[in-house]
Amino acid sequence: xxxxxxxxxxxxxxxxxxxxxxxxxxxxxxxxxxxxxxxxxxxxxxxxxxxxxxxxxxxxxxxxxxxxxxxxxxxxxxxxxxxxxxxxxxxxxxxxxxxxxxxxxxxxxxxxxxxxxxxxxxxxxxxxxxxxxxxxxxxxxxxxxxxxxxxxxxxxxxxxxxxxxxxxxxxxxxxxxxxxxxxxxxxxxxxxxxxxxxxxxxxxxxxxxxxxxxxxxxxxxxxxxxxxxxxxxxxxxxxxxxxxxxxxxxxxxxxxxxxxxxxxxxxxxxxxxxxxxxxxxxxxxxxxxxxxxxxxxxxxxxxxxxxxxxxxxxxxxxxxxxxxxxxxxxxxx
Length: 333
Fold this sequence. Notes:
About 45% of the residues lie in helices and about 15% in strands. It is α/β, with parallel strands linked by helices. α1 crosses α2.
């Protein structure tokens, strides 16, 4: 394959002008469909790759999507983050093979807005996917003011003003709690994220609704994001008087911590204490009972995120909302 295939080379071989070839490759409709198909087919046949530096200079675009991960809400060791990033990368490759997902982390004690500003001022990306959204989210405020395209994984207090993709957490956690109530549990402890996260409010809303409808007293604890914190809270609850017989957890990461605490307190997960988590993440340890969980397809959510972030916004903000599936396994036997 020739290493120096250029627009000029394509134009010469096809008997067209460089301008026509360039616009045909760009999909412009002022070039006939027949010519566009001919040019694109030949470019693919000879392995033509556009010069990205030249394209950026000409269009001002980088063909890159940014994802900035705040250390306060997990890092690459966090299985939720890992699964989401893998699915986002695959969805972006499938939808736009010439695009890149640019990922960076921000230490917990640093201001992540500085990184957003640096990415924008340096022309590093064309758009952003913003995850683990807060009710009052400075990232969303900043991006709305900047005018750069973005989509959030989760809603915010300004959800009517921007594109978002979310899961119907209130419905999912209501169904999970109702299932435990149907099994005969009356003392059900809910372990949740901190309440500044939008999804934390939605998850607790569903739990509270189910407990209220059954005439039961709710009990919730907010944990730092992590396995160890959930273990500690669960161990303390199980060691006290009037200990819970079931747990609903905002994340499988919490649920696996609860599972270990249940075992450490001399109980059997699923037989003595019921546990339901969320997000269908892989187990933390081998030989654990299989965890009942609220499942969502990371692939489906990521495809929706990429579809919105790549497509030009024309009119009102666009929204996609998916439902959880309740998977019943050993821990609700």
